[in-house]
Design goal:
Layout: E1 6-7, H1 12-17, E2 22-23, E3 27-31, H2 38-47, E4 54-57, E5 67-68, H3 74-79, E6 85-89, H4 91-98, H5 100-116, E7 120-125, H6 132-141, E8 144-153, E9 156-166, E10 176-181, E11 184-187
Parallel strand pairs: 3-7, 3-8, 4-5, 4-6, 6-7
Antiparallel strand pairs: 1-2, 8-9, 9-10, 10-11
Helix pairs in contact: 4-5, 5-6
Amino acid sequence: MAKENRRSTGITGLDLAMEGGFPVGMTIVVQGSPLTGIDHMARQFWGMDSNTGSYLMIDGEVEPGMTNAAGMTTDQLADLCKGDRIVIDSLSTIINHGGIENALQFLDKVKKDIAARNANVMFLLYPDLHSALDEIRIMRVADVVIELKEVIFMNEIERQLAVHKIRKGQVPKRLIPFNITEKGIELSTTSRVV
């Protein structure tokens, strides 16, 4: 359960690891390939509190309650960032279509808006599509940075979550294993021993 001044991540174990959830008013960047469960994490965050936020789907399948944002300008997208839980899927498409400067201006505009009204916005960023410099510039603007990755051990896939940054907060000191289930992402209570 989220504490005061925190908003649930939508994932119970992650709320515990992050001392109650995401700090309110913060911009979150989640990086990971589509195979890591990044879309599950976004849906779980957005789906809390009976969908009182906006899910702007730019480059994927639009599900009930989401907004089809394909082809919209960043000004149009900014106008649709309503509610306490906003997901932009994906920042990678905004960068690829409009360039990094346009994406950073959009990120800054949305960041100021959500901070002023104590909301949260989650941007999805796909790896290996952008230059290292562009990724660094995005990470510097973000208040919270989370990376989802998968590691293959022989015939086993292990998924891991890393919280790299929390502005004004304690970052968990370890990689957190997780599983993808029919309900979404669940943090694992056990770690692989090698």
